[in-house]
Structure formats: structure tokens, C-alpha cells
Amino acid sequence: MPDSQSAPPPAGPHLAPGEPPLATVRPDWVDNNGHMNMAFYLAVFDMATDQLWPKLGLGASFREQGLGTFAAETWVNYVREVHEGMPLTCTNEVLAHDAKRLLAVHRMYHATEGWLAAENEVLYLCVDLGVRRVTSWPTDVVAYRSAGDRQSGAAAGAEAAGLSHRRATGRYPA
Fold it and tell me: What is the DSSP string of 11-30?
């Protein structure tokens, strides 16, 4: 029974009425431990990347230039288990970029209850698909905006430092 000392409601994103989740945990995504297998966390985070790219100018016109993005490094922070049938949604945030790289973080939430399930930080490279080599971002790509010009995601405050930074410094959220 709730009382005045109950925890506040979760702060994560919730789906708008009628809005479908990014993904729902399928039976074949669940492992022998009864929760979503780690491979499918990355699959959902990849779906989140597909939502972010057009907002950064990395959609059709980018590919028409013979360019693509490759993930060079990825880190996952598993916060809370997800189980079969749970609806999932993600936020995306650009943390930093330079002439050839882009660092982004995806945060996975239970889509209706709003609690954080996992975080995924990815270092992406701009790649010339014709020669399969790293190259500079084209000037028309929105990724050149300053790191302070964050895209598609709630402000993360202190967590915006990134998972790799927190791991290197030992500064993790409480």
C-alpha cells in the first residue's frame, strides 16, 4: 500500500498513447536464465541507432555518397533485467565527435513503466564503403554540430560523461 514515503515515479520516457514500443522482448530473445540474452540488447540498441541516424544527416543522402558508419567499440551497462513480453524504448544522445568519429549513448527503458534497463555507448566511425577505410564526415552531416548540441534524448546530467569515462575513472552512478 503506497504511503507518503513511497519512491517517486520513474523518470524514464514513457510511450505516448497509441505509440508502439521500439521493440518487445520476444520468446526467442530469452536465454536459459529467463531474461533477454545479451546479444538482443545490442539488437535493440542497433534499432535505436537506426532512429538516430536520419536526425544527424546519416540517412539516405549519406549512403548515396558511398559512406556508412561502422561501430568500432561498444560498451554495455546492464542495469535491470528485462523479460519476455516487456515493451522497450530507447533514447539517443551524441556525447562527442571529431572529424572521423562519433560517440553516442543509447539508453534502454521499459516503455510503459519508465525504468532504465541498460545503457550502450558506441564509438562510430565514418567509412568510405568503396575502399572500406575510415574517412572524414562530409560537411553536410549534422554530426559536425558541437557536442553540446545534443540530439534526441533527455539530458543525462552527470551521466553524460559516458560509460567508458565512468569505467576509466571508477565514477559510476549510485
Answer: -S--PPTTPPPSEE--GGGB
**Helix ranges (DSSP H) in the chain:** 38-52, 60-64, 163-169
Eight-class DSSP state of 149: S
Grade residue 141 by pLDDT with cuts at 50, 70 and 90.
confident
- Closest alpha carbon to 122 in 95, 82, 142: 95
The grid cell for 137 is 564526415
The CATH number linked to 130 is 3.10.129.10
Residue 14 is assigned to a structural domain of this protein: no
3-state class percentages of the chain: helix first, strand second, coil last, to nearest 5 = 25, 30, 45
Q: Report the number of distinct structural domains present in the chain.
A: 1
Distance from C-alpha of 59 to C-alpha of 140, rounded to nearest angstrom: 12
Domain that holds residue 52: 23-145+161-169
Specify the pTM: 0.78
CB-CB contact of 138 with 65 (8 Å): yes
Q: Please tell me the predicted confidence (pLDDT) of residue 143.
A: 44
Instruction: Show the cell assigned to 93.
Output: 544522445
Q: Is residue 8 part of a domain?
A: no
Confidence band, pLDDT 50/70/90 cuts, at residue 174: very low
- Asked if the structure places residue 3 within a domain, the reply is no
